Structure formats: C-alpha cells, structure tokens
Amino acid sequence: MLSTTMEAALNEQIREEMYSSYLYLAMAAYFEGLDLRGMARWMRVQAQEENSHAMKLFDYVFERGGTVTLKALAEPQATWASPAAAFAAALGHERHITGCIHKLVEQAAAEHDHGTVNFLQWFVKEQVEEEANVEPIARRLEKIGDNMVGLLFTDRELGSRGA
Ligand code: OFO
Fold first, then answer.
1. Which pTM value belongs to this model?
2. What local confidence, expressed as pLDDT, does residue 137 receive?
3. Fewer Cβ atoms within 10 Å of its own Cβ: the N or the C terminal residue of the chain?
4. Any long-range contacts for 9-13 (C-beta under 8 Å, 24+ apart)?
C-alpha cells in the first residue's frame, strides 16, 4: 500500500508527464507550422512517449492499491524564437523532469518504500536517455543557427525517428 504522501507525489508526476506530452505536442504544432515535418515528427513521437511514461505511473499507483487523481494541465507555450530555441527548451524541460524523478526517489527512500524506489529506477535510467537524446540536437541546432541547408538536413534526419 502506498502512503498518502507517496500517492500524492506519484499523481503529481503523472501530471508532469502528461504536461510533457502536451508541451511536445505544442512543439510538434510549432514545427508543422514551419514546414519542418521531420522535427514535427520527432516531437510527436516524443509526445507519445511521454504519454506512455504517465501510463506507467498510472498503472503502478493502482498496482500498489492507490488512487489516481488527474490534475489540470497548464497551457503550453505555442511558439519559440527558432528551432534551436524549441530544442533548448525541450532539453531544459527534460532536466526539470530528471530533477522531479530524483526527488521522488529521495522521498520513496525516506519513506522506506523500497518497492517505489525500485520502480523509479526505470525512470532514472530513462531520464539519462531522454537528456542524451535531446542534448546533441539542441547543440547542433545552436551551431546551425538559421542556415537553411543545415536546418533541412537536420529536419530530414529527425524525421526518421521511429515510433
Ligand atoms: Fe517523461 O521523460 Fe521526458 O519528460
């Protein structure tokens, strides 16, 4: 059985993951508007992945006899100064999520909830991957600036991201 504090914290993380999905969907819409379909696809896939993170938490809360209470999502930003700025924001967001996951692990450890500490290890590893996926793209786009050839080349590459 989850403690009420752990249950509340996991519910809050469901909101964070659903917001991540919403944010990346907003970024997908931004890239669609720029006709950068490869980047839009990359963001759509990312949005789906975030939904699956939320569902992993959703299922875990029930597995432990808890209750899921869905919270309101804030309206995500709709536009960014450039593709580089959008990916830099995505990286900043992933770092924020990594911080949330680490706090959850610390809380679970402080509550001696070993089941939740163990469950969260998947997310700890996933966050390392999440940051490692976005960081090189953000760095490259920063270098590319508004060079159209570089942008279109990167767009084509990102469009090959599998679901
Ligand atoms: Fe759920 O990992 Fe990104 O936010």
1. 0.96
2. 97
3. C
4. 9/103, 9/104, 9/107, 10/57, 10/60, 10/61, 10/66, 10/104, 10/116, 11/61, 11/68, 11/69, 11/70, 11/71, 12/71, 13/57, 13/100, 13/101, 13/104
Quick one: which atom of ligand 1 is closest to the CA of 127?
A: 2
Q: Is 20 in the pocket of ligand 1 (CB under 6 A)?
A: yes
- Is 113 near ligand 1, meaning CB less than 6 Å away? no
Nearest ligand 1 atom, CA 17: 1
Chain segment 75-92, per-residue pLDDT in tens: 999 999 999 999 999 999
Per-residue model confidence as pLDDT tens digits over 37-61: 999 999 999 999 999 999 999 999 9
Ligand 1 centroid to 20 CA: how many Å? Answer: 6
